[in-house]
Amino acid sequence: EAGVAQSPRYKIIEKRQSVAFWCNPISGHATLYWYQQILGQGPKLLIQFQNNGVVDDSQLPKDRFSAERLKGVDSTLKIQPAKLEDSAVYLCASSSGPGREQFFGPGTRLTVL
Amino acid sequence: QQQVKQSPQSLIVQKGGISIINCAYENTAFDYFPWYQQFPGKGPALLIAIRPDVSEKKEGRFTISFNKSAKQFSLHIMDSQPGDSATYFCAASRGDYKLSFGAGTTVTVRA
Questions:
Q1: What dihedral angle (degrees, nearest 10) is formed by the CA atoms of B12, B33, A106, B80?
Q2: Out of A40-49, B30-39, B87-96, which region has the weakest mean confidence (pLDDT)?
Q3: Which residues of A touch B25 (CB under 8 A)?
Q4: Parallel, antiparallel or unpaired: strands B86-92 and A108-112
Q5: Do A40 and B98 touch (CB under 8 A)?
Q6: Whether A48 and B98 lie within 8 Å, measured CB to CB
Q7: Are strands A75-79 and A88-95 parallel, antiparallel or unpaired?
């Protein structure tokens, strides 16, 4: 069974630029999560989708972050404009449903200069 | 605010020794307590999990001890091996399954 795929693996941008990350969950997984993991900290949930609907985006900085999962499969997370404090690893995870085991992708390491 | 506090930040153990990582929580509504293992360049992977109806769960060399009254739980890695060198995260969630993670513990096992 293929795992959660993410791209790109690394991204370096200047502050105030835009960036987008892509995630393809495990086939058949209805629940998709985006986490932000700052160096030395645990992952923090940014947004949770159930199929193509948003379940929880309470910790998503909506003035600059957006995410979509239009067809209920893959998902895109965008940052516009980026700030220095957005430097982190962005992890995507999926599960067969809420409360089920979450499977994480390898993450995208973002550096904002 | 951080809902799950984890300690120590890092530890070094000799091969064959025991690694112990502790976590404490405040929210008594939490009812699921997983531990994740993360290797450099990889995403976290579920290692072992416990619910508050039991005080201990063992899977191979990994054991979770849970103290509901103290609102604490810990991970014990027995007979630590170099391949166990990784960062370990405790987490907790309540009925809506939103995981709150600890800050992580980097474990180094010396051969």
A1: 30
A2: B87-96
A3: none
A4: unpaired
A5: no
A6: yes
A7: unpaired
Which residues of chain A are within 8 Å of residue B39 when distances are taken between CB atoms?
A: none
Average predicted confidence (pLDDT) for chain B: 94
Token couple for A31? 């629940």
Strands (E), chain A: 5-7, 10-13, 19-24, 31-37, 44-50, 53-56, 65-68, 75-79, 88-95, 103-104, 108-112
Minimal CA separation from A72 to chain B, in Å: 20
Interface of B with A (CB under 8 A): 4, 6, 32, 41-46, 89, 91, 96-99, 101-104
Q: Which residues in chain B have their CB less than 8 angstroms from residue A107's CB?
A: 42-43
Length of chain A: 113
pLDDT tens digits, one per residue of B16-34: 999 999 999 999 999 999 9
Q: Across the interface, which of A43, A48, A107 has its CB nearest the CB of B101?
A: A43
> Highest mean pLDDT: which of A94-103, B87-96, B99-108?
B99-108
d(CA A20, CA A67): 9
Mean pLDDT of A19-31: 96
